[in-house]
């Protein structure tokens, strides 16, 4: 999930100094409108240590009219607070209607810290998250506008900051301790964000490497969200009784809101794939043979332990999915795998929920099931071509996560691949297919049409990875301009994943 | 919660035979409309053993056109099913669009049975319920109409049936076992129902003592729910894009739908209070003195253990709340209690969520807090007088349950009292107040106005008890026509509750 907040997005000094005064004026205007509309606004400022949360809070206080802003930092809980139910302290901190409350740290901090330091178990953590979801629902039902920011830094950047930032180290003596447990925090935070990321209270995960990018993203999201709510509020006042459904926030709001300011602010996750990688034929042949042998052994082990594996393949047209799958299954005994090619749904399938056709094929224990295209069609082709209305594909991210989480809880290994090629390479392959007789069936009008929507697809892939790449069901972005690189990468990833699960613990799945 | 399904509601033979043919004709019509609208309908048939679930399923198959009905019973899971994630078997059983699926037993059965027999712990149970809520959300988001029936029998009636019903005993050899664990099942079921009872998939808890009442209630609810969904569906087709908010189902649907057929089908929970009870002055004085002494000892014990107690008083005007509270606090050291009278909210309170004013007064550990009127104003006076719009008070039941559950989890004892008097007794007291000079301040125009809405208030009280009487925060309905009976009942209930918590386990709260 955090992959999409490690892209090195930034904003130039010039673009920032041009945008800031405009933004501030707009924020002051909207703050007045909020006061008139008499709705409370709650802004949660959270994220990893060292991500400049304090600066964001100071900045918001600078941009906004301080008279309507209530800033509240949650330090360690007091005696007073500990003698009451946990949410008492959060109720105390809520802003009244018409005001903006900035909460530095929030109801998320304690559950995340407790669980990351293993002082609470997975089910206690889940219970705490349910309480949070209920609380946020209650606030939103009452008309509050809830805006949740999560600021992210990669491990390396966090380490850098630790060395430099003496001031923050004094403010938070635990910073070094937190940094040491970076990956535990990352995993626990991912879970917290995923489980509480819903339509009425979405999370905004923002890369905090470049403060200019971070600050403009915060400002623009704030502005856009408040504007959207005020519009809906006014429409309700005009139309009378019936409450309207609120328009959704863009899935990657910072990207869409900042793209015009600086192209570097709009990088997608696909920009991280190094397409220049190549592999010589000889090295390739040796490596692929070794990997196939290794995979054969591993899949028999998985069979003996009754561990299922689900491999999902998505990618651009002509990215080489078919060839990669053939090399992969050469390393698996034919009795142990099944390849499922997802074409148009049957009549019977169309009469059911779109996930029904995937549930019906969930294999019994001990097998490898390979999906050539998958349930991700919902958030790729169906989104881009408009086959599914926006609320349907928006909802699908969560539905897919729930589905894969159920597979994971049942002990199924889930690994997803996106095969990435450049538009130039795709064009070369299309043309090659047109002139090579036995390859002509492979190229259709549809392929050319999809190609015309490269950017829309790239955005859909970016959102898909952002929303559905989880620790238990990760996406691997495969550099596929060179087919040899692609095939080796895929085989190696599958082997490593199986080894990690089968090898160390002796148990089919890591405890969840 | 189940108190409201133990009222002896029934339908006369005559009323039933008049209503049934009409109902069947309407059901067949609506089934055709469902087929045309191409939406799937999922009916869950669940409840305690012996409650005639099989007969309901047979009846629905008789009433409806069998060609569009898919009945599915969940027996013990097969090998096939156990080797896949738990929900695989439920996905298999879903009806296609346009059809009606009747699920005999459902995704609730296994989690409830596992937890009632202590084979899963509280957090595993909560996790299972979260999965269920996600699944139901997914179905409803996809356009399915989900109707959930829970059939209830009191313990005595279940025992009766066990003796008589040889046929069912053969069908379910575990019936005797389940009956033996009646109270464990009751508690676990209550929790399951409460946590999954939401707007898009509400539960209908139906008393199953009288089959005629049970069957007509099922038929009418089915009809009313389908009609409501079809109307919304059609409105959407007409108005174009924007999906509309669906009108809610009545809180006690059977009551509202069957009231015209037979007054005995419309009994409220207040009908169970025996108002003829009396107590002589001498016996009263002795008893009250003993109880006050007992309470003094208990509240000091609670103080030592840092256990908080919250007592809530609601009741008709002139039911004697004030007097009862005075007798109660005579039994508590003045340093240990606080009485909070809930009047109109302050400006500061009005600028917040309605629960904020109650959260702010949550006491520190070791005290007794007595609320003379409370957060229940939301679902009583605000509902009846229209001060809160329907969605607001409808939502409040769940919000209040969450609030009280947080108190309970923090170790607070919560006990709620409703003081019940007859309209005749109220009139007598009003008149007495008008002629007694020092009591005149106690009677206002508002009291007379409220009296004029006796039936609306009675319905609101009924729904309140139905939705918010839980094991950890129960309602006690107090017979208050005789003030002496009322005061003794209240003191005794408080003593017994404190003893139960402080006495046996040595721990402040039962494990949850």
Task: Write up what this structure looks like.
- Two copies of one chain form a homodimer.
- Chain A is α/β, with parallel strands linked by helices and 512 residues long.
- Chain A folds into two domains: 2-267, Rossmann fold, CATH 3.40.50; 271-503, Rossmann fold, CATH 3.40.50.300.
- Chain A is 52% helix and 12% strand.
- The first copy, chain A, has 22 helices and ten strands.
- Chain A has helices spanning 13-37, 53-63, 79-82, 88-92, 109-116, 122-141, 155-164, 166-171, 175-180, 182-195, 211-239, 253-258, 281-304, 321-329, 347-350, 356-359, 381-384, 390-409, 423-435, 445-451, 454-468, 483-503; strands spanning 41-47, 69-73, 100-104, 145-152, 203-207, 309-315, 337-341, 368-372, 413-420, 475-479.
- In chain A, the strands form two sheets. A five-stranded parallel sheet of chain A has the order 2-3-1-4-5, with helices on both faces. In chain A, strands 7-8-6-9-10 form a five-stranded parallel sheet, with helices on both faces.
- The model of chain A is unreliable at 505-512 (pLDDT under 50).
- The interface between A and B is large, with 53 and 53 residues.
- How large, in whole angstroms, is the Cα Rg of chain A? 25 Å
What's the overall geometry of chain A? globular
N/C terminus separation of chain A: 18 Å
Largest interface: A-B, 53 and 53 residues
Mean pLDDT of chain A, to the nearest integer, reads 87
Number of continuous helical runs of chain A: 22
Helix amount of chain A: 40-55%
Multimeric state: homodimer
Number of domains of chain A: 2
CATH fold-level name of the largest domain in chain A: Rossmann fold
CATH top level assignment of the largest domain in chain A? Alpha Beta
Q: How many strand elements of chain A?
A: 10
- What is the structural class of chain A? alpha/beta
Strand order of the largest sheet of chain A: 2-3-1-4-5
Unreliable runs of chain A, pLDDT <50, ≥5 residues? 505-512
Name of the CATH architecture of the largest domain in chain A: 3-Layer(aba) Sandwich
Largest sheet of chain A: 5 strands, parallel
What is the fourth-level CATH superfamily of the largest domain in chain A?
A: P-loop containing nucleotide triphosphate hydrolases
The percentage of residues in β strands of chain A lies in: 5-15%
